[in-house]
């Protein structure tokens, strides 16, 4: 196939990944030139992460081929991918804190004989690589003494010295400060000079314009375009390419929104949040929209008392305590971000999951009313249309959508006045998504206040009455939803663009 | 055997039996099967009295198993119970012994028996509180903590008894509780208390908020906290509950033998853990039941008494325990995988 | 740049804590020795009259310590990898019994020694198989083998006899006793030098060896280790085998010192080993820990126990060890939390 193996580091040929009912990646073909920083952009759910997983061997493609430097190479494990010259920096760090920098750099690549390491040029090589990338890091220092950014640089140095020709970086700046980002960019540029190809994935469009040579846009699992960034006409063109169509918007102003303020938060600050203030009204659905790391989850957790914060949170004029228990007692419920690890009791049945947030309603004098539990479970299974053969089914055996409905049922059962929904439809199929939106709207119509924290624009635009735009722990703007809402303006704000950048 | 069905959760039409009931039934089935097998092989094994003995000879371990099972369900170990048994027994003797005996080991504090019992319970609860402090506050793995407190408890008992036992200069009332026979049969009070405790535990587990909260914590501690459950306090109560049971067992054993022996309850913590594991309680937490634990104890009792019947040396008990736990764990994993395939 | 300054400042603050964590154990060891040396032990009639730093006394302590010293290094590496072995005590007992049986039946020293070490390999491999292959939780898997090995050790010894020892029918050969008692270099027995040799080897393994580094990687960040192409399962398996081998060496040392093969001689060894390793600053969450520091921890504990014997009666031992375990776990935890976060 490839005749341009001298200029292309990587070629994808008709790559597809199918799941039952979904084509996460749909016949994607493009090429990545050698010695470039190639950016990959797309909205959430566009297929970026699935694509990356196939490149790194974590997933096997349903069909299609991958060529590395002209040779067919479809890895089946991260190890194989690395041997083929593809190294990956995942969002979470994969360094061993307890080892020194140099031990981390050589981990798994050492020369050994009879169970002992023998001196080789490996150490000199990795130290040289590290020095070239970031001279300020002491190779003998323990990794636990380094900052997050420095650890990331260690990972990059390891990837570079492992002989990888292609390094994939998935949102590497999510946890970095501005200054650290600049240093990282310096590192990436030096890598490019030393013949390494970088595939760079980020939501932050400024970074892409600053760093990238070429860009590939994905949308709904399909390849939209690959072209040099110099030929891209500013943020607005990129945003248009990502959205591709007017965002499907079926928002209809609802009549039940009142002026009665339910929640008043002012001056919330903590490690990530900076002076965040907002209010939520009775019968209203408020959206918080921002990228990963913008502070959505942190706001939800602060309001719920799960994280420490300074500032004040009042529900119906009364201060809310600093623990989930007090928040629930005050009338707040949270559907957490991570369904399986934070929301659901997976080893227990649907029936046993539902009552946990409102024990007074289920018991009298410490005695548990099992009959009520059964009827409550039946009621919510019916009301939320949870598809299950029995209320005694263990929740780990349910589909993502139905699991999420169980978490909803838990929160609804607490009879909260204010519902905090953190990524309410993440990992949920389309059908269940629509149903969950209906549930949310019904709740607001009945007079509950709802806050939706989401990184999906369509979701926020579809159901929220008012939208707060977040970037870097700050509420940048408050918008009223409506037919005239300016989507490219929203994307501009949440990707870090100032007002002036809007054309 | 009709009572077994009553214990099990009621099954309604159209509702699927839970994995827990499935495993419990499996354990009950194995217990009955082993009993019948042993009866077929051994003469005189199939007797009502023998069946009763299987329970009455193991009242102490079964009682301890209740607290241990609750803690396991909440995702925590308690290996201190054996030490607490020794401690509370020795304390009750020491407190009740008359002042001014002939030698250091025969003179105590001369408290009235009831007061001595109350103070001995205080000692047991102190160990429970220590467990809770280290596990909940300092967040140290419960296995390390309770191994340490087991040694501390036994160590205090050894110091008080100078490494042996105290059995002289005791009031007559001391031997009353442990040797009281009930209902005109040979069944002693501790056995009756164990049965009552078992029923109460099943009630707590199935019918009370307390039991439910235990499962929630064990199943997913993070979700439990985010659902408004005060996890630390609940685990504290469980450690106190377990230590209280162990304390009572120790006091009753001391009464039964009219002595406070510093090596009493040796390895009982492992036996309590073993019967819980045999009964299908998962150490990962959130899964298991007290009834399962009870039948786990029966399995172990049948196996060991059958071994004795087969004239195997008593040394076999360790190997049989090891094999039983191993098979139980493999069988349960396999059965659940098969069922949920 | 500002960031760098910030970094170096915080590291300056934590470097004191780091220094403490790295070297405190040596100070503790010196402090314990000084403390015991300065105590006037004249009135006690143990060992030689007089000073703790008496040559015979020190030799005696080091002779008794040989089993613990030989075992703690490998155990440290296992805990560094994030795993635990509760069966070391039983493995040690079983090895002691096997070694004594071979000796009393006329097998010469070297074959007897090697066969016993092979038994250690087998016992460790069984643990590794249960944990790595069958994926049974380490605590449960090694609790099963604790019971199993102990049972086998008990079965190997005839009924009615407490241990394998010289009798009218068969005499233990002289070399059996010499290994653990007879002074060679510096008047210290071969068993002690074996412990030193094993420790030196393991210190080198930890500094330069594949196993040492991979153990730290496996315990520190298993995902990172796997992504780096390390076969973490094999690492853990090998470490279990290594612990098995050192348990066998410990069994040889103990049986030789006592000149008998006692099936209960290793009881409680797992607790002492855990205590010593935690005292040496090994994190139970894995990743951190040093062989040499555990070696020092073992010396501290043995000096304390022996030194204590000269001051307080033996029955204080369990209490002190239990309390030490809790304190070691708590301080270890507090220091490591300060250090990392």
What does this molecule look like?
Chain A has 503 residues and is α/β, with parallel strands linked by helices. Chain A contains 18 helices and 24 strands. In chain A, the strands form six sheets. Chain A has a six-stranded mixed sheet, with helices on both faces. Chain A has a six-stranded mixed sheet with strand order 18-21-22-15-23-24, with helices on both faces. Chain A has a four-stranded antiparallel sheet with strand order 2-1-4-5, covered by helices on one side. In chain A, helix 4 crosses helix 5 (148-161). With 341 residues, chain B is an all-alpha fold. Chain B has one domain (18-339): Orthogonal Bundle (ABC transporter involved in vitamin B12 uptake, BtuC), CATH 1.10.3470. Chain B is built from 15 helices and two strands. Chain B has helices at 3-7, 19-41, 48-56, 59-73, 81-96, 113-137, 142-161, 176-179, 189-207, 209-219, 221-226, 231-257, 268-278, 290-309, 316-339, and strands spanning 165-166, 260-261. Chain B is globular and about 65 Å long. Chain C has one domain: Orthogonal Bundle (ABC transporter involved in vitamin B12 uptake, BtuC), CATH 1.10.3470. Chain C has helices at residues 2-38, 55-80, 88-104, 109-133, 138-156, 174-181, 190-208, 210-220, 222-227, 232-258, 269-279, 291-309, 317-340. The radius of gyration of chain C is 21 Å and the shape is globular. The model of chain C is unreliable at 1-10 (pLDDT under 50). The B-C interface holds B 77, 130, 134, 138-141, 143-145, 147-156, 158-159, 161-163, 262, 270, 273-274, 277, 283-284, 313, 315-323, 325-326, 329-330 and C 130, 134, 136-137, 139-140, 143-148, 150-152, 154-155, 159, 271, 274, 278, 284, 313-323, 325-326, 329-330, 333-334.
